[in-house]
Design a protein that fits this description.
This protein is an alpha+beta fold. The chain has helices spanning 2-9, 39-83, 87-106, 113-132, and strands at residues 14-18, 21-25, 31-35, 135-137, 151-157, 168-173, 176-178, 181-184, 186-191.
Length: 192
């Protein structure tokens, strides 16, 4: 029995050391080489893994922020697109609205009262329809400061009064907003 205890006691004991390796005997008596782990090596590995983890977290946060910005931007673009979806059709209907206004002004004869009334009713109905879609008329009374962001100067005339120099004298064609966006600039005459 004492022999068996000696064999089991020397089962995995190191015999010699070579360049950071140990020779170990297993229970059958065969030897194999096993690398020793140094504490300096594990500290470097831990530090390396910690740095990689920090980089991965930073990359994750950047990607998350970038995606969040993308989501917000596309939501805003979608909202803008929905608000101005009818811009093209409304822009095409504006000349019709202008023609109704001109026809109402030019046909003021007494015998044509019913025609004038009909044209005015159609113009009002069309105007209400466009307003329901977000169309707003731009106010440009005489004496308003000229703003190139809102107005388009067609021509300049000598100002009838000195206070009208550099200001709007007359509006040739009305300007319109769709929501808060200018979809047609007001065509105006300015005083010089």
């Amino acid at each position: 029995m004492t022999k068996k205890k000696e064999n089991t006691a020397t089962k995995h004991t190191p015999e010699t050391k070579n360049n950071g390796q140990e020779t170990v005997k297993n229970k059958k008596g065969k030897t194999r080489k096993q690398e020793k782990t140094s504490t300096a090596g594990t500290k470097e590995e831990v530090e390396k893994l910690t740095n990689e983890l920090a980089e991965a977290k930073d990359k994750y946060l950047r990607l998350y922020s970038e995606f969040d910005n993308y989501r917000k931007r596309t939501a805003k673009e979608k909202l803008d697109m929905m608000q101005t979806a009818g811009e093209r059709i409304i822009t095409e209907l504006l000349p019709v609205l202008d023609d109704f206004g001109r026809a109402g002004k030019s046909s003021d004869a007494k015998d044509e009262d019913s025609i004038v009334e009909g044209i005015n009713l159609i113009a009002q109905k069309l105007e209400k329809t466009l307003q329901a879609q977000g169309l707003k008329e731009m106010e440009t009374p005489a004496g308003t400061d000229f703003d190139p962001e809102l107005h388009e100067a067609i021509t300049q005339i000598p100002a009838p009064e000195s206070k009208l120099k550099g200001k709007i004298v007359d509006t040739i064609e009305k300007g319109y907003y769709l929501g808060d966006k200018v979809i047609r600039f007001a065509k105006v005459v300015t005083g010089s």
